Amino acid sequence: MAATGYHSGERAAQALAGETERADHLGRSFRDTVPAVAAEFLAQRQLLVVGAADGAGRMWATALAGEPGFLGVPDERSVRVAAAPHPDDPLRETLRGRAAVPIGTIALEPATRRRMRVNGTARADELGFVLHTEQVFANCPKYIQKRRPVPAAPNSAPTPGPGPARRAAALTTVQRLTVSTADTFFLATADGEGRPDASHRGGNPGFVESLSPTALRWREYPGNGAFMTLGNLEQNPRAGLLLPDWESGGLLLLTGEARTDWADRSVTFELTAAVELPGALPLRWTEPEYSPANPPLG
């Protein structure tokens, strides 16, 4: 897909939602290079979400974090990421392998509700990877809960390092509670040719329903009108979800398939595998200030 174009799945989703004209307007802001203002934004970020497929073709979303400067823009077609996933992360091999791989990313600043998506092809280097950009654009601030990184207190104990992964084919009772009380998750999808995208979903706690140990559902709130995620799902049902634990730095990664019910514009996700990564991120965050855009539940 060209930087300023939409694929047929996105066009179909836009038409189903009656948002074609709005999507056309937004599409004119898409670029394949990183402008100076975007480079400055990325250089100050501490959180990057990555969506990609593993070696078996399963979609996953994961997160990388660091001090400001761990994201750099050496030129207008490249973003350097100086971080590697948790040792047991399903995307570790994908992002650290020798081959170039398609990925989607979203850089988030929860404190100001700003986000930017950068999609393209990544190749590993000595510190992490370099992303060759193919699609760069900013998103609206809707549904982002305000949070700020919590600096370590003087003389405080060191932040615990990553613990071993916990893997399962279904959610535990505790994990289902994590899902049903979440106010944020991230979603990785790909089009019919396997080009990934990473997106954000937010709402008041309870906006994601845990229907069973292997099924989740959420309602799609009005967004920017591009319908990139739902457009991908029109072509390719494979999807990955990431639920961060903002207090502990843990990550809950889910992979499976998702389908849209256009009657009520909801998405049902059937998971096939879950991976919990304790202490995967070095950052801890404040309690949320919920977005005023969050719709009431029920």
Automatic annotation (TrEMBL):
Residues annotated as domain Pyridoxamine 5'-phosphate oxidase N-terminal: 179-259
Matches recorded under SUPFAM superfamilies: FMN-binding split barrel
Family matches, as Pfam families: PNPOx_N
Protein name (record): Pyridoxamine 5'-phosphate oxidase family protein
